[in-house]
Design brief:
iron ion binding, binds zinc ion, transmembrane helix, oxidoreductase
Length: 294
């Protein structure tokens, strides 16, 4: 066999399958990719960037189709505001620009940085339970970071110079999740990436697959929160502390309150909830206080 024909992805795959038959199919595909690339940073960089693009646009697409279906309009939170094709195209252009200029380096530097702190890329994979509890921790950390930095971004000068772009759409749609100034993408993206790095530095226990699944779930959360749709089967009906579109859509409509990303607890505890219901509760509280003082 000629030497260059042996250096294929599937050759690596069959070599690994022969040497370690105990690995499952997915683990063998994974190990073959890293062996084939021969450069972990490059292998992770390409895989994670492609995955990010695929999930971002792949998850936004069903929402774009739903927007074209009149029967679904009854589930739209701000029913009268369906995004036009031009709006969606303008949005996609800016999103792509920040993906290539801001997110690409962030994704690229994640691997060497996390590897420095002890990230593993090897097989076998961690157990589902390990991945689940670590991802749950990342969700809580990100939500906290998001609450405080998003709230800060609503402070006058920061709003005017950075965050205003994200608020261009008062009725959001899936694709608009990452429609923002590159500076904002960097600030908020830090919440997604620094939690796992911190975790890795302290515990020395993080597999990059856990990171991938976390990114996918976080993308789903962000895109769905911007979808503009509220269904009787939306997650927050079953998990009352889950934010979802119901929570974030109001933020876009009212411009103040509801600053967190995944959960409702920060806005609840710090009394920054937005919307008519929160307003009513605030009014009632004030009234009760005034009556007590009399
Ligand atoms: Zn905002
Ligand atoms: Zn938003």
């Amino acid at each position: 066999m000629l030497p260059h024909t042996t250096n294929t992805y599937w050759h690596e795959f069959s070599e690994i399958s022969r040497a370690t038959p105990s690995l499952n199919y997915f683990e063998r595909l994974w190990a073959a990719w890293y062996a084939f690339m021969g450069n972990d940073v490059l292998a992770t960089g390409i895989m994670s960037f492609m995955m990010h693009e695929l999930v971002y646009f792949g998850r936004s697409l069903p929402w774009m189709i739903i927007d074209q279906m009149p029967a679904m309009n009854k589930y739209k939170i701000q029913g009268q505001k369906v995004p036009s094709k031009k709006e969606q195209w303008d949005c996609a252009k800016l999103v792509l620009l920040s993906h290539f200029t801001v997110e690409l380096p962030q994704i690229w530097f994640f691997h060497p940085m996390a590897q420095y702190f002890g990230l593993t890329t090897t097989v076998p994979f961690p157990s589902i339970l390990t991945m689940a509890y670590q991802i749950a921790i990342f969700f809580v950390l990100e939500d906290t970071w998001h609450y405080w930095s998003h709230r800060a971004l609503h402070w006058g000068p920061l709003y005017k110079n950075i965050h205003k772009i994200h608020h261009q759409y008062s009725a959001p749609f899936g694709l608009a999740a990452e429609y923002a100034s590159p500076i904002e993408v960097m600030i908020l993206g830090l919440g997604t990436v620094s939690g796992p790095i911190l975790w890795c530095a302290i515990t020395k226990d993080l597999h990059i697959l856990t990171m991938y699944i976390w990114i996918v779930l976080r993308l789903f959360q962000a895109i769905d929160a911007h979808s503009g749709y509220e269904f009787p089967w939306s997650l927050h009906h079953f998990l009352p502390f889950w934010a979802g579109a119901d929570h974030h859509d109001t933020h876009h409509e009212k411009f103040i309150g509801n600053y967190s990303s995944s959960f409702r607890w920060w806005d609840y505890v710090l009394d920054t909830e937005s919307g008519a219901e929160a307003q009513k509760r605030r009014r009632e509280r004030k009234l009760a206080k005034a009556q007590k003082a009399q």
